[in-house]
Write a structure and sequence with these properties.
Layout (H helix, E strand, L loop, with lengths): L1 H8 L2 H5 L7 E3 L2 H7 L1 H38 L5 H54 L4 E3 L12 H9 L3 H7 L2
Parallel strand pairs: 1-2
Helix pairs in contact: 4-5, 4-7, 5-6
Length: 173
Amino acid sequence: MVLLGLFFSHSPAAFSEAKPLARIAVVDSDRILRESAAIQQAQQQLEQEFSGRDHELRKIAQRVQSITEKLNKKGDDLPDVKRSAMQTELAQLNADFQRKQHEFNEAFNQRRNEKIAAVVDDANRVIQKIAQADQYDLIVQEAVYFNPRIDITDQVLKALAEPGFAQKINARP
């Protein structure tokens, strides 16, 4: 009898007063980093910023290739002094190329990481604004599986594409 009393004391009316379930959404971070207008503009800016150094590296690589071909084709026919001078020049060009390529890669990767961090910061601010405006309790950025109906990635991409966000990324150092 006591069990029946406990069971019936929790009537459906008592359950209707229960708190609503939490509002949850998901954002696909990888998609943000692939598709956002800000990341595309950052990529274009990086290409422009590093095009001069890239061109210089290509010229050095062409010079190395040219000398290598000459040595391979005519090296045996060249006087020892001339062949030795070409080999020395080739060694110096190779060392210079490798040093400059290493510096280029380091500088490019650092700038790319800075640009990505800026986009991630902006995306996080947008996600927080969406969470507050739409009263989400939890927004997850990485998930093994999620139902597409809770995906707000398109909403974030749209907000990032609004005027002001792309210019802000380009204005950053």
